[in-house]
């Protein structure tokens, strides 16, 4: 039997990334730190779906205080989350300073990026009627 466990992404600022995912509706489920390995694992999930987690891996800065940057091949396509109301979710994200890279013009799909630049797809169950200001917003950057 195969069972989905989690998707792991590397993050440079765990607190900022947790705040981002909380805006979508995820909550921290558990955390593990390793002094020897110099890393922290933080697991997040949508309430009631704790068996489908996002694992945030934070590798601690080196002795000189520098942190590794994660770009290009160190990340992947995107995470996807179904949301209760795509317009309300995008408004909450935008009000918190998150850029909506692909607005939900069709009432069904939007894309945003985590603080570390990882693409997140937001999907409405079904479609809401097109609504302003979303219906006329252009794409911003890549998604």
Automatic annotation (TrEMBL):
Residues 3-125 form the VOC domain. Pfam families: Glyoxalase (PF00903). One of its GO terms (molecular function) is lyase activity. InterPro entries: Glyas_Bleomycin-R_OHBP_Dase (IPR029068), Glyas_Fos-R_dOase_dom (IPR004360), VOC_core (IPR037523). SUPFAM superfamilies: Glyoxalase/Bleomycin resistance protein/Dihydroxybiphenyl dioxygenase. Keywords: Lyase. This is Lactoylglutathione lyase. It comes from Novosphingobium silvae.
């Amino acid at each position: 039997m195969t069972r989905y466990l989690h998707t792991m992404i590397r993050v440079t600022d765990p607190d900022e990334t947790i705040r981002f995912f909380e805006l979508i509706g995820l909550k921290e489920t558990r955390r593990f730190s390793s002094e020897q390995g110099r890393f922290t694992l933080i697991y997040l999930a949508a309430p009631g779906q704790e068996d489908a987690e996002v694992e945030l891996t934070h590798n601690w800065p080196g002795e000189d205080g520098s942190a590794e940057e994660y770009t290009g091949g160190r990340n992947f396509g995107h995470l996807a989350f179904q949301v209760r109301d795509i317009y309300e979710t995008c408004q909450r994200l935008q009000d918190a300073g998150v850029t909506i890279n692909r607005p939900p013009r069709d009432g069904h799909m939007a894309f945003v990026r985590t603080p570390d630049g990882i693409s997140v797809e937001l999907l409405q169950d079904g479609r809401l009627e097109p609504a302003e200001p979303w219906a006329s917003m252009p794409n911003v950057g890549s998604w």
